[in-house]
Design a protein that fits this description.
homotrimer; 270 residues; alpha/beta; UDP-N-acetylmuramoyl-L-alanine:D-glutamate ligase; 11 helices; 9 strands; globular; Ribokinase-like (chains A, B, C)
Chain lengths: 270, 270, 270
Amino acid sequence: MGRVESACATLAAIRENSPLVHNMTNIVVANTTANALLAIGASPAMVDSPEEAPELARVAGALVVNVGTVTPLQAEAMKLATAAAHKAGRPWALDPVAVGALTFRTKLANELLENKPSVIRGNASEIMALAGQGSGGKGVDSTDSSEAALAGAIELAKRTGAVVVVSGPVDFITDGTRTAEVANGDAMMPYVTGLGCTATALIGATLAVCDDPFYAAIHAMVYLGVVGEITAKTTEGPASLQQDIINGLYYLSGDHIKETARVEMHETVV
Amino acid sequence: MGRVESACATLAAIRENSPLVHNMTNIVVANTTANALLAIGASPAMVDSPEEAPELARVAGALVVNVGTVTPLQAEAMKLATAAAHKAGRPWALDPVAVGALTFRTKLANELLENKPSVIRGNASEIMALAGQGSGGKGVDSTDSSEAALAGAIELAKRTGAVVVVSGPVDFITDGTRTAEVANGDAMMPYVTGLGCTATALIGATLAVCDDPFYAAIHAMVYLGVVGEITAKTTEGPASLQQDIINGLYYLSGDHIKETARVEMHETVV
Amino acid sequence: MGRVESACATLAAIRENSPLVHNMTNIVVANTTANALLAIGASPAMVDSPEEAPELARVAGALVVNVGTVTPLQAEAMKLATAAAHKAGRPWALDPVAVGALTFRTKLANELLENKPSVIRGNASEIMALAGQGSGGKGVDSTDSSEAALAGAIELAKRTGAVVVVSGPVDFITDGTRTAEVANGDAMMPYVTGLGCTATALIGATLAVCDDPFYAAIHAMVYLGVVGEITAKTTEGPASLQQDIINGLYYLSGDHIKETARVEMHETVV
């Protein structure tokens, strides 16, 4: 099965199984990521207290951990929940929002790596910071190019065993050996808050139905990139685009993917 | 006054009095429920710390307690605020999101029942869990039918004195003796996150102006069902529907209700 | 440079410099204010834990503190972050949501004044409460007119050194000596939750690029008022207006401002 066909198969599996995706996320994107997950066909649950998160993480199809507005209590819950997911053999994805720019969450994200995320998705500055490189970005926005972060991403993947995604105008996905590029999207997308968080949430949905985290990550980036690219053509502005992307995920079909996806694969030699 | 006419009278009373509705709610729906309450004509306030919630609960027209993303601190505030509302004779509504699926909030919801909610609204799995039945659902989504939950709802109403609403394709509303069915809505509505939370928020508005919680609950379910049914006909997808429903609540008229509402009443014999 | 020309220059400076605006805000508007700041051209970061907020406040272009859903932990972070901003010479804006109506946040807001906000923006009841007058409003909604609050606003500005904005159908902006009126907007705007919070967030963006907080506040109120007034003419309801305003901020041009802004300036004699 080709790359694009397998993206279609993963989408069909999400819609057939409606996997429970457990999100520990930030106050900015809680609504939009829940809606994006419903639209793609998953069953989202937003649960992030220490009393509850480990209980849910053990039974969910996948866990998504996003440190965007992390508090000390939520950090404690993230440690417990990722440990529970790891112990139960459940896949989980890490979104290291603003890691590198802020000390507390940088330390936290590094601690969470011990619980073996299946996928890490960030912008170039965030991934370089986790890889021990770079300057840390400006707040939540990247100040580095995705290309510049690729070497760090490969190193981070090798060190942690996670698939690493550097999102940007072109998304790079690597497991340390294989690397893929997804070249979909639109220049208006960075004007919508938290579409990176939406990407990581969608990775939660693909991880829940797809055994290979490398393909799970590619497929989710394809879904968001394809839908963003298609809907941006007719959108009325960035707030409309936030809405249009969720509508688009609901109507996303195999034909959309086949006609629009631009994916390239490489064996990495580093 | 007939059932539909009284729903129109309650709507007019909300718009005339603009009741203060105090919400202790989750990070997913804070924006959409505040906007839904403004659209229907109420004055929402989102306040959920232990230092403030009891103070507001004593003076608000009604209190809405939603455990969707409950933390231990918020749980403490919920106990204090519902006790304050009960003591002050203020009506309050409970939304037991994911009760049955998670231990902490199941225990919390049962403790909150001691402060005598006027209305409890949940999906079938949540109501069955509160009634001591059922399997608890999958995360926040129901795995049981509303019909299956009706016997438990009647029992829960009798035991607690609350009006109990089981929402689904057909909504059941019971005070243990009387039962009503509201058969409005659209199949796309479950693809919008938190419309159940919106229903409970609207119950807060109707409770604030309507002396009989049984009718307050029916009317709120009618408003949401009618608006959802009308706006879904022309919506562009689930994210648009979230927006269209709020717009629709703003423009909701007595004529919309009279033309579209499908309400049936039964004396219950159990 | 005239008043309107300087508003255009400030807008151009935001878009050229994309200033980092640090927000400590509430769960209702976190998404919409982040999107509004992105749309106007700024780089928002939502960070509100005691461990992180002071670190970011020292380096951000401006800080915005909004007590809308304040918790004790967030209150502690607000004290630390505003002290850090003040010490580092960074401008910050205070949004005293529901101050006067609730004891905890009223005390907090008064403590935060010691860290010398550059701008305070509230509705009439909130400003009167901070000025030690008035009845405190109903929840988050004002029960007083902006005109009634003007004397209190001037006194508050003189006492604290902050520019004070009373927003309403006509917005009043005063530094205690100079007073301006911005008479833009639309009657539907109060039906959108948190547009006042959006105004304060935009003040964060203007403060980051504009040396005089009096003009920074005027310009932000002009942007929101002009965009609200233009987009309300064709909007489909309050939820659409929330979205249309963010789209409108993205497309806001100098011509829109020149054609639509209604600003009057007065030397105040009190």
